[in-house]
């Protein structure tokens, strides 16, 4: 009789196994061979682990079970992924096992590269199944990093640019949205990565810091002071988190609700302030005259030909939102340092 190559491979492993004891009779071997052949004919070939249970007596003694995986027995009878085989004898109730373990890899090709806990693909993912969706969160973070030098260049060049304000505001708003969206996709598709977790907050802080510095140069101390507060807090909290991480207590200073409110206020205030047309000075805001030298800044009057000169009124509300953001920045930062105080003071 001519046996399939995969049957010969399985029998070879069995014959080399230490389980070949006195209980391994020719009848039991015949039943195991028959069951192996039936399993092969039924398509049981993509097995990462196959267990042969060989027991004496009875018609249902020979059982083959398999668990689904990406391992494939090729035409030469060799398991490409490494088959783990165990032969079990019930003589005296003792169990003997011989296994050949192999590294296991997780295949997510059925989900387009996303993680195992991702929901079923939606219309867009079904429409573009070959697109590397698992890399999209990182692509959004890269785009936010690239937008920083573009934003900086457009803030000053070309010198005459009538629609500079709406362009800068739109660029910053899109970058701010991607800051939320990339994290949302990474969690939803279960594709979080250490590099993404590192780069995402860095890109966020760089974008916000760049925009605040540009606005501080335009309006002077009234923007420079909250800018200094926000940037000092970011540096301090980042250093605190790194220090706590070295001591295995990073969770005690993880981002809280106040930090999220601070980030939202800062981004909205910057977006609105960037919409204010060029040439609108602080004298257009009534209450800034009570701030003395801090209430002086800007270029004076609206430059002729600017696109959105009707949005000059946004300067006052955006300044108030920036002050509110600086206040929440201080309170949220104090929460983090208070939580880390026992470790900082050596009490833990």
UniProtKB/TrEMBL annotation:
<keyword id="KW-0808">Transferase</keyword>
<feature type="transmembrane region" description="Helical">
    <location>
        <begin position="319"/>
        <end position="337"/>
    </location>
</feature>
<dbReference type="InterPro" id="IPR048254">
    <property type="entry name" value="CDP_ALCOHOL_P_TRANSF_CS"/>
</dbReference>
<feature type="compositionally biased region" description="Low complexity">
    <location>
        <begin position="98"/>
        <end position="110"/>
    </location>
</feature>
<feature type="transmembrane region" description="Helical">
    <location>
        <begin position="139"/>
        <end position="160"/>
    </location>
</feature>
<keyword id="KW-0444">Lipid biosynthesis</keyword>
<feature type="transmembrane region" description="Helical">
    <location>
        <begin position="263"/>
        <end position="281"/>
    </location>
</feature>
<comment type="similarity">
    <text>Belongs to the CDP-alcohol phosphatidyltransferase class-I family.</text>
</comment>
<dbReference type="InterPro" id="IPR050324">
    <property type="entry name" value="CDP-alcohol_PTase-I"/>
</dbReference>
<feature type="transmembrane region" description="Helical">
    <location>
        <begin position="206"/>
        <end position="232"/>
    </location>
</feature>
<dbReference type="GO" id="GO:0046474">
    <property type="term" value="P:glycerophospholipid biosynthetic process"/>
</dbReference>
<dbReference type="GO" id="GO:0008444">
    <property type="term" value="F:CDP-diacylglycerol-glycerol-3-phosphate 3-phosphatidyltransferase activity"/>
</dbReference>
<keyword id="KW-0594">Phospholipid biosynthesis</keyword>
<feature type="region of interest" description="Disordered">
    <location>
        <begin position="94"/>
        <end position="121"/>
    </location>
</feature>
<keyword id="KW-0472">Membrane</keyword>
<feature type="transmembrane region" description="Helical">
    <location>
        <begin position="167"/>
        <end position="186"/>
    </location>
</feature>
<keyword id="KW-0812">Transmembrane</keyword>
<dbReference type="InterPro" id="IPR043130">
    <property type="entry name" value="CDP-OH_PTrfase_TM_dom"/>
</dbReference>
<dbReference type="GO" id="GO:0016020">
    <property type="term" value="C:membrane"/>
</dbReference>
<keyword id="KW-0443">Lipid metabolism</keyword>
<keyword id="KW-1133">Transmembrane helix</keyword>
<dbReference type="InterPro" id="IPR004570">
    <property type="entry name" value="Phosphatidylglycerol_P_synth"/>
</dbReference>
<keyword id="KW-1208">Phospholipid metabolism</keyword>
<dbReference type="Pfam" id="PF01066">
    <property type="entry name" value="CDP-OH_P_transf"/>
</dbReference>
<dbReference type="InterPro" id="IPR000462">
    <property type="entry name" value="CDP-OH_P_trans"/>
</dbReference>
<protein>
    <submittedName>
        <fullName>CDP-diacylglycerol--glycerol-3-phosphate 3-phosphatidyltransferase</fullName>
        <ecNumber>2.7.8.5</ecNumber>
    </submittedName>
</protein>
